[in-house]
Design a protein that fits this description.
This protein is an alpha/beta fold and about 350 residues long. Helices cover about 30% and strands about 25% of the residues. Its cofactor is Zn(2+).
C-alpha cells in the first residue's frame, strides 16, 4: 500500500478534478502491475495497472489507494474492470466520499466474490486525497500557504528587495511543490511587485499548474510575464463585479480566463474565491502570497497546510511582513497549526504544518 500511495502522488497536480490514485497488483509475492491516475484524470489507476499486468491480474491482489469507482463516466467503473480481470482480493485504505461511489464500489466487489480489506494506511491516504474530499464535500480545494522569509518573518526589505532571501535548494523545493498542486495562486500585489511566472522550472518537462491571480479590480499590468504567457500556460483571474469591462476584455484577449466572485468589505471574499476554484475542478491550490491574500485566508480559517522556508538573516521591523493585518487581539484568536516536518535545505530550513 505504501508503494501504491507513492505511485498515486505522481498524479498530484495533473489529474484534477479526479483524485490522484495509485494501484499495485501483487501475485505470488511479486508485482505484476502498477499504475496511477493519468493526466486529465483518465485512465484511472486501476485501468493502467490492469493493462500493465494483462493475464497475470487473474488471482492477484490489487492494492488501491481509494475505493474503486462504481459509476460509469467517460470510462466504465473500475470495480467492474477489477471483477472482469479476475482479481481475488482488493485492499483499499478508505472509501470514496463521492456520492456516486460511497461504498458502492466495495459492495460490487464483494458481491462478485472478491475479498475486500480496508483501513490499511488510512491516515496517509486521507491526507493524500484531502483535496479531492474537500472539493467533493465542501466545494473548495485544499490550500497550501507557502511563506519564504527571513528569520524575523520578513519577505522583503523596506524597499521591496526580495531576490533572493532563501537559497537555490529552497527555491528548487518550491518548484517541486508547485508541480504537486493543481494551481499556483497569488494576489494582485505580488503579481505587480514581482512580475512572477509562477511556472515549474528546473524539474524537466512537467505538467504546468494553472496560474491564479486573485484581484478584485484586475489591477495587474498587461505588460507582464503572466499576460505574455497566458496562451501557453493557463491564467485564471478571480475578480469582483466592479472590475472594468475594458480591463476584462484586454486580459481575455491575452488568453486569460476570468472568474467573477463575491466581494465582502471591499475585498474578494476568501470563501467565495475558493468555492469558485472548486467549481472549476481544482483540488489543490498552492498560495504564494502576498501578505493581504495570506491574511484573508488565515483569518477565514481556510488554510489547510503551511510550508515555511526560513533563511538565516534578519531584516528588521522596517522589512515587509509575510502576512498582512489579521486583527488578532489575543493568542486564542490566532489559527494554530501542528508541526509535521522540518528539514534543512542548504542554508535554509523548511518547516511544514497542518491545521
Amino acid at each position: 500500500m505504501a508503494h501504491a500511495l507513492r505511485l498515486g502522488r505522481r498524479g498530484m497536480g495533473k489529474c484534477w478534478p479526479n483524485p490522484a490514485v495509485g494501484c499495485v497488483l501483487i501475485k505470488d509475492g511479486r508485482v505484476v502491475g502498477r499504475g496511477w491516475t493519468q493526466p486529465g484524470g483518465r485512465p484511472h489507476a486501476e485501468t493502467v495497472a490492469l493493462a500493465d499486468a494483462g493475464a497475470r491480474a487473474k488471482g492477484a491482489t490489487a492494492y488501491v489507494t481509494l475505493e474503486p469507482c462504481a459509476h460509469t463516466g467517460k470510462t466504465p467503473p473500475c470495480a467492474t474492470a477489477l471483477i472482469q480481470a479476475g482479481v481475488a482480493r482488493v485492499v483499499a485504505p478508505i472509501a470514496d466520499s463521492d456520492p456516486r461511489v460511497a461504498g458502492q464500489g466495495f459492495e460490487m466487489l464483494r458481491k462478485a466474490g472478491i475479498e475486500v480489506t480496508t483501513g490499511v494506511l488510512a491516515e496517509q491516504a486521507m491526507h493524500d486525497h484531502a483535496g479531492f474530499f474537500l472539493k467533493t464535500e465542501d466545494g473548495r480545494p485544499w490550500v497550501t500557504l507557502k511563506l519564504a522569509g527571513s528569520f524575523d518573518g520578513r519577505i522583503a526589505t523596506a524597499t521591496g528587495e526580495s531576490k533572493w532571501i532563501t537559497g537555490p535548494e529552497a527555491r528548487r523545493a518550491v518548484h517541486g511543490l508547485r508541480a504537486a498542486h493543481d494551481a499556483v495562486m497569488v494576489g494582485a500585489g505580488t503579481a505587480r511587485a514581482d512580475d512572477p511566472e509562477l511556472t515549474v522550472r528546473g524539474w524537466g518537462e512537467v505538467h504546468q499548474p494553472v496560474r491564479v491571480i486573485a484581484s478584485r479590480l484586475i489591477d495587474v499590468p498587461l505588460m507582464s510575464r503572466l499576460a505574455a504567457t497566458a496562451r501557453e500556460v493557463p491564467v485564471w483571474i478571480v475578480h469582483g463585479s466592479d472590475a472594468a469591462p475594458e480591463t476584462r476584455r484586454a486580459w481575455q484577449s491575452c488568453g486569460a480566463s476570468l472568474i467573477q466572485s463575491r466581494v465582502t468589505a471591499g475585498r474578494l471574499d476568501p470563501a467565495a474565491l475558493l468555492s469558485a476554484l472548486g467549481n472549476k475542478g481544482l483540488t489543490r491550490v498552492f498560495c504564494e502570497g502576498g501578505g493581504q491574500l495570506a491574511a484573508s485566508l488565515l483569518a477565514a480559517d481556510l488554510v489547510d497546510e503551511l510550508v515555511g522556508f526560513t533563511a538565516g538573516l534578519a531584516l528588521g521591523a522596517e522589512g515587509r511582513p509575510g502576512v498582512g493585518a489579521m486583527g488578532v487581539d489575543t493568542l486564542s484568536e490566532a489559527p494554530r497549526f501542528r508541526l509535521v516536518e522540518t528539514r534543512a535545505l542548504g542554508n535554509d530550513v523548511m518547516h511544514r504544518w497542518l491545521r
